[in-house]
């Protein structure tokens, strides 16, 4: 998820491959999705808006050059960068879960609220959106090429199990229900298991699956996927999707007292002499 | 969840993977599109085998127009979907899941969804005959 309407200079930049240029047509969107049915819908919407209506003011800001520089002026964030931005959101949500468990005894009201709000964001942003991008765009081309099949099967199963945990948390993470010690234990154990599962899950995706996905796609396919990701995010979360969701996560962090990044800095330790190697 | 834990015969499709209905479809129309269909690929009316241990009724099979293109197989009026996260025959990871705006259920050969206790059931006022879009 990226913010299509945020100036590109403010977006994260991939360190490796050059950024992609945006083309008007999205004919390849959805090619990997089931039955190609999604392609028609997205393709039509994007084609009708081309660069301007779908992605805001950028081309309009320099009207005299817009036509000549349409391709080079309107870049798309690479789709794997978008996915990793969303993984950053997930890491912050996992941190909220973890901190909520620590607060459960001292401030149960806040903790329960946080678990519920975090589960809602996980459901809406991670499970309904981010994982759907993976399941619709990232995994199918790799499976078709018989790459990382066992890993992807495991990732899919973890998606499914995670969704059931979230569903349970949304049902059970209430102040009234957590008075029942068995429900409380189930919620605590499930949150711990969820965090434990998703840390290696996303690390494996970032280091194995996403690089393989990127390597498996042509530049045109990556361009189309990036276009689609931007458009779907805008449709789902508004014109600045990443900023919108980050703000929601930050609100949860504030309620837990973990909004200050500096508080996570390790204390200074005295230098220790390292014995010379033989 | 293993299909054997469901305690009833349910519809399965190719590769013996289970088929699901989407509650918001309400036996009326295909409503799972775009990213929803990325996780829940519809069963399109081409080359798909529908079976339920021999109990599936051909008379309940129809198809419904997918607003994004093509025709989706319906059973007793319910558009049918697979779940991307089902990767092994005999398992139904999507049963009772609340995702993409509604609940997902397995379907019995008689055309009724398998609704776990405590989860919302289909609207009982849904049409008992297939709608005009079904063919």
Spell out the blueprint of helices and strands:
The complex is a heterodimer of chains A (about 280) and B (about 140).
Chain A: E1 20-21, H1 37-55, H2 58-61, H3 63-66, H4 70-73, E2 75-76, H5 79-103, H6 108-144, H7 149-172, H8 181-216, H9 219-237, H10 241-256
Chain B: E1 20-22, H1 35-39, E2 61-65, E3 71-75, E4 78-79, E5 98-99, E6 102-107, E7 113-114
What are the defining features of this structure?
heterodimer, A: 278 residues, mainly alpha, two-stranded antiparallel sheet, 1% strand, globular, B: 135 residues, mainly beta, four-stranded antiparallel β-sheet, three-stranded antiparallel β-sheet, 7 strands, disordered C terminus
Protein model, in words:
The complex is a heterodimer of chains A (278) and B (135). Chain A contains ten helices and two strands, in the order βααααβαααααα. Chain A has 278 residues and is mostly helical. A two-stranded antiparallel ribbon of chain A has the order 1-2. The longest helix of chain A has 37 residues, at 108-144. Chain A is globular. Chain A starts with 19 loop residues before the first strand and ends in a 22-residue tail after the last helix. Residues 8-73 of chain A have low confidence and may be disordered. Chain B is mainly β. Chain B is built from one helix and seven strands. In chain B, strands 1, 5, 6 and 7 form a four-stranded antiparallel sheet that branches. Chain B is globular. The N and C termini of chain B lie far apart (33 Å).
